[in-house]
Each structure stands twice: as C-alpha cells, then as structure tokens.
Design a protein that fits this description.
39% helix, 2 domains, 6-stranded parallel β-sheet, 13 strands, alpha/beta, 7-stranded parallel β-sheet, 374 residues, Rossmann fold
Length: 374
C-alpha cells in the first residue's frame, strides 16, 4: 500500500441515483481522511460528477454496466435489456480484461463499486480489496423483469459471483432485499444535505411567502411531461429543468437559480415532483421536503422505496395519467395537508466511510464499522 491511499470508484451511469449515494460517502471519507486519492470511473458527464463530489479526483471515462435500457425515466425496455445482458456476458472475458487493464493502470489500494459487477469481478481477479454499495443490484433487478427467462440463472451467475466477491455489500436504507448475497451489510440512509435558500429564491423570483414552490426532477433519464397542457394551479410555482423550455409564468427554469445546487433546491422547495428513486427519496426526506411521485410499479426496487418514504417522510403517489394531464391539484392538497415529519438523519455516509477507511488500511483509528450483516 502506498503512503497515500488510493480509492478507485466504479459508478453506474444509470440515472443520477448512484452518484447521489456515492458522493456523500466520498465527501465524508475525504473530510475524515483528506490525504485519500480518488479515481472515479463512470459514463456520467464529468461536470455532473464534480458538482456532487468535493475536492480533487481523477476521472476515467468508461461504462462498466448499463443497468436497464430505458424508454424514459419510468419505463424499462425489458426485451432489449435482456438481449443486452446476453451480449454483454457473451463478451465477458473481453470486457473483464478491459476492466482489469484500467485497474492495473490506476493501481488503487481499494475499489468501491456502485454497482458495476464487472469492476468487482476484475478487482477479485487482481486481488484488490473491494466493497460494493447500493440499495439494489442488477442481478435482482434483472430477476424482477425476467423471472420466466430460461437463461436467467446463467445470466445472474457471474453477477452474483462478482457481488459476493466484495468484502461487504453495503445496503443503505432503504434497500431492496438481496437474498442471494452472503456479504450484505445494512447501514443507515445516505443523502446530501442542502442549504435553505428559500427567502433568497422568493425575492429573486418575486414570489409571495405563501406560494408553494415545487421542484420537478425525474432523474437522470430524459423525460418531459407535456407541460404546455397542464392547468395552472393557483398558489403553485414550479421549477423545471433547463432543457424543458416552457414559456409560462408559473413554470420557471431552475437555471435562473444557477448558484443553487440541486440539493439546495430540494431543501428550499415545499414539494419535489419525481419518480421513485433512491437519491430523490432520501434527499427529500433528509432535507424535510414533501414528495409527489409518479407510480413506477414495475421497477423491482419501488415497493421498498415507497414504504420507507411513507414511514419516514411525507409523500403521495400519483398515476402516470396525472403526469400527462397535469391534474395534480388534488394530490398536492393532500400532500400539503399531511403533518410534517422531522427530517431523517443521513447516517449511512459516515458508516460507509468507516468501512472504506478500514479497507484502505486506516484500521480502527476512527472506530470499527458495525457488523450488521443479515
């Protein structure tokens, strides 16, 4: 091991939820251990990575997984995804050699994967210590969609072997069950905390203090509702993504608040309109923001996300028809009428950072990670 420990992070580019999980962990690790050197491998845009991950780090552009191919933010392309997995595994050895080369060149002291199993398999073959971290894994997501496929077990076998090769698979609350993992460890929720900029936002947008400010964010997969057809809801101002381009006074491009990070916007708004996703749900609950979310009932992780949000935060589910029609006034009233629950403490980032410290050779100087294996 070098004098300056080097952590190699393999990050899925399937939406932004994986980055929302990893970034607070890396930020916690670097606050505790500023000397740690980071390398991040991902297909996400580098600007998006640097917006979330503090400090200096090297970036390797390379996609080690694809998760599920998507029609849009809500619907998976199931047949196409199964075909893609078959093609991916038909080239398994070639892909593994490619990932091994990247790891050899980087020469890290440890690997963290959220959740490319190819990277974990390469780390195991090179005998590099590794941890996995995620609220889901692709083997169980694939099973949720392809349970009747005759080759499902063969497709899942290398995935599960790679996930089980990690020293631990850290599962931040809320996580889906992962019964085929023998190394699963439950930790607390992970979320970034933002600054409340509401007074400044009201002033800049000319909003009354009693205006309900709602943020629209459907994750890192492109999807735009037909907002031109939405009826205006009195007393509601919506913040919309910059590329949605809607010319209405009640629909404001959030790029006009460019000095506010996404997590600042979440904390400053009354409501987040989103789809079920780890980062959106935990960031809303930990920042005290209510959630109006669009059903995504075929996504295998969804029941555990929704159950956790209802237990720990404020949320109301709407059907996809309402997202299209804009008939959201009634569910918004129901959401705003709920007694506010206190913000959730995002304890999982520090817990995961402790596991990384131990893997990188810091021993128990800052505390031994709890062993809460299932």
């Amino acid at each position: 091991m070098s004098d300056i420990p080097h952590l190699y992070v393999a990050l899925s580019g399937h939406g932004f939820g994986h980055l929302a999980q990893v970034a607070p962990v890396l930020n916690a690790l670097c606050r505790r251990r500023p000397a740690v050197r980071l390398t991040v491998q991902s297909g996400l845009p580098e600007a998006v990575l640097r917006e979330r991950i503090d400090g200096d780090f090297a970036v390797i552009v390379g996609t080690a997984d694809f998760g599920m191919l998507m029609v849009d933010a809500l619907e998976a392309k199931v047949a196409e995804s199964l075909a893609a997995y078959r093609a991916f595994h038909a080239e398994w050895e070639t892909r593994l050699v490619w990932q091994e080369r990247l790891l050899r060149e980087a020469a890290p002291d440890g690997v963290l994967a959220d959740i490319p199993y190819l990277t974990l398999a390469a780390a195991a073959r090179l005998e590099i210590p590794a941890l996995a971290l995620c609220s889901l894994n692709w083997a169980d997501i694939l099973q949720g969609y392809g349970a009747d496929e005759p080759d499902l077990a063969a497709l899942r076998a290398p995935m599960l072997a790679a996930y089980n090769s990690a020293a631990a698979f850290l599962q931040p609350a809320p996580s889906m069950p992962m019964p085929d993992l023998g190394n699963a460890v439950s930790i607390g929720p992970i979320a970034a905390l933002g600054r409340n900029r509401r007074a400044d936002i009201n002033r800049r947008l000319g909003l009354r203090e009693d205006t309900t400010l709602a943020l629209m964010g459907l994750g890192g997969v492109a999807m735009r509702p037909p907002l031109e057809n939405w009826p205006a809801v009195p007393g509601i101002c919506w913040l919309t993504p910059p590329d949605w381009a809607v010319a209405r006074s009640d629909l404001v491009d959030w790029a006009t608040l460019s000095d506010c990070s996404m997590v600042d916007l979440i904390r400053s708004c009354d409501v987040l309109l989103t789809k079920p996703g780890y980062g959106a749900f935990t960031e809303a609950a930990c920042n005290g923001t209510r959630v109006l979310y669009v059903e995504r009932d075929d996504w295998p992780e969804e029941p555990w996300l929704s159950h956790w949000l209802m237990a720990h935060g404020n949320g109301v589910k709407i059907g996809r028809r309402r997202l299209t029609s804009g008939e959201v006034a009634e569910p918004l009233r129901a959401l705003l009428a709920q007694p506010a629950k206190p913000p959730v403490a995002p304890t999982g980032a520090a817990e995961a950072a402790m596991w990384l410290e131990r893997m990188l050779g810091y021993g128990s100087a800052s505390g031994q990670p709890p062993d809460s294996r299932r």
